[in-house]
Specification:
The chain has 215 residues and is an alpha/beta fold. The protein contains five helices and ten strands. Helix 4 links the parallel strand 9 and strand 10.
């Protein structure tokens, strides 16, 4: 596993308006920005989309953090790479531009880490088929995400992410986090279904209809 420290590799889609809400797509472990950018074609086109390549080369793809087990980030690795991402984001989307995070699998844990680290920085986050980064140096306290829109989607037969982490993520987001949570489970395993993609598109459409919903 090797870390690259260059500027992020980013693919874009959707609106070219620099004032449009920015939806950042975060791929899963061992994948890349090329795999997740395809989602943008099925999502509301009035938003701008940026699919970012994770900073750690792993196998034939990339990862957002070193881990100590599936869904369990090494804290210093998560911290380093969240800071790397935030440096890019602050240039791409200065304060005042709405940013929505959409993460799948390992990207969901990274999105969750970013949201928990700086809740007011984001206009919402979709945690798709993944876990929040528990015990990884970011606060997971009651009320941490008060009023922030969050979509959590899981597969009923997902055997990739440990069930106890999926359950803990669900329970925290719909309960003590204080988030405005929409939580869905669909039949299937560890992969985004058409039903989930439809839910995601509807959820993003709702976010776009509200100006700066978490501010």
């Amino acid at each position: 596993m090797s870390i690259h420290t260059s500027e992020p590799v980013v693919l874009t889609a959707g609106s070219s308006d620099h004032a449009a809400p920015l939806v950042v797509l975060l791929h899963g472990r061992g994948s890349s920005e090329r795999d997740i950018i395809d989602l943008a074609a099925r999502l509301p086109q009035q938003a701008a989309y940026a699919a970012v390549r994770a900073p750690i080369a792993e196998g034939g793809g990339y990862a957002w953090f070193a881990n100590r087990g599936i869904g369990r980030p090494v804290p210093h690795s998560l911290r380093q790479n969240m800071d790397w991402f935030t440096t890019w984001l602050d240039t791409t989307a200065p304060a005042g531009r709405d940013v929505i995070l959409v993460g799948f699998s390992g990207g969901a844990a990274f999105a969750g880490g970013l949201l928990l680290d700086q809740p007011t920085r984001y206009a919402g986050a979709a945690i798709l088929y993944g876990t929040l980064p528990f015990d990884a140096g970011v606060p997971v306290t009651p009320g941490r995400l008060t009023g922030i829109p969050v979509l959590v989607a899981q597969g009923e037969q997902d055997t990739v992410i440990p069930r106890e982490l999926l359950d803990a993520t669900w329970q925290y987001l719909v309960g003590p986090a204080g988030a405005v949570a929409r939580a869905i489970r669909h039949p299937g395993g560890h992969g985004i279904t058409i039903a989930t993609l439809t839910e995601l598109a509807d959820w993003i459409t709702e976010r776009l209809a509200h100006e700066a919903p978490n501010r």
